[in-house]
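Incident log, structure service

09:12 report received: a user says their structure output differs between two submissions of the same chain.
09:20 pulled the input from the user's history:
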Amino acid sequence: MSDVIPVKRPSAAVLILLATVLAGGSGYLLMPLVAADLGPEGYTAFAVFWAALYLIISALSGVQQEIARATRPRSVSAQVPARPVARNFAVVVAAAVLVVTVASAPLWMGTVFPAQGWSLVWPLAVGVSAYVIVAVVSGVLYGLRVWPFIAALIAVDGVLRLVLVLALLPFTSNLGLIACAVAAPFVLTPLLVWPFVRRHVVNKSELDVTFRPLAWNVARTVVGSTSTGVLISGFPLFLGATSGDESVSAVGALILAITLTRAPIVVAVMSLQSYLVIHFQAQAAAAWPALLRVLALIGAATLVLSALTYWVGSPALALLVGPKYFLEGSVLALLVASAGLVGALCATGPAVLARSQHMVFTAGWVVAAASTVFLLLVPGELETRAIVALAVGPTLGLLVHGVGLRRSLDANRSGSR
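09:34 re-ran on a clean worker, output below:
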C-alpha cells in the first residue's frame, strides 16, 4: 500500500496563496512600471507579447493539472525503481513546444509581432518550452502534497521576473531584451529549486497511467486550458485584434485596466487550480457543498473588490500610471465583477476534472472562450464589447460545468442504489 498523506490541510491553501500574493504582487507591480516607462503605444506592444506568452502557458497549464491528478506517492517497500514517465513526458513535450513555436513563427509573427519579429519570437519559444518542465515538476509536487516547494516555485518565478525587468528598465526600452527578462525565470526557477526538491521526488512518486494515456488525458485538458488562456492571459491579444478601428492609446488603457482589475481574483484562483483538483478529489462524497463553499468565497471577494474599485479605482489608476490611462470607476468595477465569473469557472473546472470528466472540463472552457471571442466581434463601443464578452462567456461555461457535474453526481447516486 502507498503511504497515506493527508490532503485536507488548511495551511496548504494558505501557503500557496501567500506565494501567489508574492508572485502576483510582483507581476502587479511590474505592469504599471512598464506602462509608465514605455507609454501607451509601447505598453500595447509589450502587453501583446505578455498575452501571447501567457496564452500558451495557460494552455500548457493543463499539463500541470493532469500530472497532479495522476501522481501518487510510491510505496516505500517498492523494490523496482519507478518508471520515469513524467520526466520523459516533460522532455518530449518541451522539445516539441520549442520546435513548433519556432517553426510556425513565419506564419503569425508578422501579425502578432509586426515591428519586433524574431526578437520576440525567441524569448517566447524558450519561455513556453521551459514552462513545460515547470508544469511537470509542479504537478508531481502537487500530487505528493509537498506544499512548501510548490510555494517556492511560484514565489521564486514571480519575484525573479520582477527583479530582472526592473534591472533592465533604467537602461533600455528594447522590447526584445525586456521579453528575455520576462521569459528567463521559466528557465532559471526549476534550476534553482530542483536541488532542494529532488530527494522528495525521485523514486518517491508514480503516475496512475503510462505515457500514451497520459498524453491523451493531457491533450484533452490542454484544450480546456487553451480556452482558459483565451479568457484570461490571451484576452488582451484578442481585444487588440478585434479593435483595429480604435486608437492604440484607448486599447492600451483598457488592456492595462483589465490586467490590473482582474488580477487579484483570477490570479489567486488560477494559482490554486492543481490544489483544488486534489481538494475536490478528497471531497468526492460531498462534491456540491465543497464546490459551493469555494464559489461563496470567490463571490464574497468579488463583491468587496468591485465596491472598492468603484470608489477608488479611477484615482488609484491615475496615481499609478498617470491620467492618460483614465477609465470611469463604473467600468473598472464591472471588469472586477467579470473577473469573479472567470474565478468561479476556475473553481468548477477542477471540480469536474477531479471526477475525471475531461470532456466536460474541456467543453465548459471551450464554450466560454468561443463565446467571448464571438462577442468581441460584435460591433459596439470598445468598453461595452469588452465587458459583455468578459461576462457572458464565463457564465455559459459555468452552465456547462454545472450541468456536467450534476449529471455525474446523479449517475453515481443511481449506481449506488
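09:41 both user submissions now match this output. Likely a transient worker issue. Closing.
09:42 reviewer note: The longest strand covers residues 71-73. Residues 10-410 form one domain.
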